[in-house]
Amino acid sequence: MANDKKMVEAITSMDVDFAQWYTDVVKKAELCDYASVKGCMVIKPAGYAIWENIQNELDRRFKATGVQNVYMPLFIPESLLEKEKDHVEGFAPEVAWVTHGGLEPLQERMCVRPTSETLFCDFYAKDIHSYRDLPRVYNQWCSVVRWEKTTRPFLRSREFLWQEGHTAHATAEEAEERTIQMLNLYADFCEEVLAIPVVRGQKTDKEKFAGAEATYTIESLMHDGKALQSGTSHNFGDGFAKAFEIQFTDKDNTLKYVHQTSWGMTTRMIGAIIMVHGDDNGLVLPPRIAPIQIMVVPVQQQKPGVLDKAFELKERLTKAGFSVKVDDSEKSPGWKFADCEMRGIPLRVEIGPKDMEKNQAVLVRRDNHEKTFISLDELESRAGEMLDTIQNAMYEKAKAHRDAHTYEATQWDEFVDTINNKPGFVKAMWCGCQECEDKIKEATAATSRCMPFEQESLSDHCVCCGKPAKKMVYWGRAY
Ligand SMILES: [Zn+2]
Fold it and tell me: Does pTM top 0.90 for this prediction?
């Protein structure tokens, strides 16, 4: 039992030090490790398997809307990056440069892609000629590099994995429709699969993507009350098309510029899963994204027939379509239970000699530790029901937490007091001026997270300057 204790004690309580708790979980659940390249991470099998599940599910949903996957080069020539003014200004401070090929200095230096708008635009300019070539709905799965000053595993690293969709359309309406469609796809994915409730809305001009006409976002709230931008979808209008001369001959035989979008989701969602659902025992994975959904733990496995029975249960559950493992290691059952919890495995099946006599097993939920004795005759159906129950309960719990940490403020003092003393989202009215956003950020370190699609009228004046209000905004401190 000494081992169990040691393992549990090794994690900092989330209420004592959330940042340390996060680091502990990442390490103890073996999701990733630090690399010898500062600010980069080694994603370990348990972490990469979560990413693969995110990838598979998103990819399936993308393709259902007509998305095709492609691959663009890793390098962007400097002249290409500079073609769109806002874009290069937005990314220049965090770009990594390649200056040599082998021993020879390059004639033109190239950056390692921080994002691939310019490459897609360069390609589309050559590839799109007629309205018959439209729409182009391409996506790539890749890694990008942004030379961040401060980094944290999954949340902010110098190289991270993501997908970036880049589309070209004949009309502005079609581009806007695709931008919203992808935002809703991300939102549904987060809520249905990751059990993370999101606020859907539009970024203010200050917070929008460099070069975009409009940026839409889904924002989620972490357990510590900080916001996390979880997915973005941008409408570029014809700005990039004009900079890169992406034109097509329309049905009326005139030359027109295409309208473009881009949208992305990254490995930071693994960080979101940890920070929304985790607890003092470690990671808690939603069943629909968990690489291992069920762990069968034999109790007194040295007794005759116990291990065979454990593997028999695994076979049955695997056949029923679940992802299952047996922990037949030499460790004590208590150690195995704690290990299962640390790794966030949604459901544990305990089976020992006494259970076998009674033709039963014990199901233990990771999310609330509830134990249920079930007849082995009903193993598959009860396990399936319980995984569904866990998935729904995790979403409801996260939503209740978010709702309980979403506040309103109509006066400046009240606003500052809420941001400072009640971690969470603060809904407040805004006049639309960037000066107020700047002042709020300076006074409270909070940023505008989004102007939600579902607008409310909390008062008729800006919480900051008192002038007439234009929009209700979600404010918060963010990762
Ligand atoms: Zn104002």
Answer: yes
Query: Of all residues in the chain, what percent are helix, strand and coil, respectively (each to 5)?
Result: 40, 30, 35
Q: Does residue 233 share a domain with residue 330?
A: no
CA 212 – ligand 1 centroid, Å: 23
* Ligand 1 is an ion; residues with CB less than 5 A from it: 431, 436, 462, 464-465
pLDDT one-digit tens code per residue, 129-154:
999 999 999 999 999 999 999 999 99
Residues 173-221: tens digit of each pLDDT: 999 999 999 999 999 999 999 999 999 999 999 999 988 999 999 999 9
Q: Which residue's structure tokens are 């401070």?
A: 93
What is the number of structural domains in the chain? 3
Instruction: List Cβ neighbours of 61 (8 Å cut-off, separation of 6 or more).
Output: 185, 188, 189
465 CA to centre of ligand 1 in angstroms: 4
Domain limits for position 146: 18-277
Tell me, in angstroms, the distance from the centre of ligand 1 to residue 440's CA: 10
Distance between Cα 434 and ligand 1 center (Å): 8
CA of 297 from ligand 1 middle (Å) equals 59
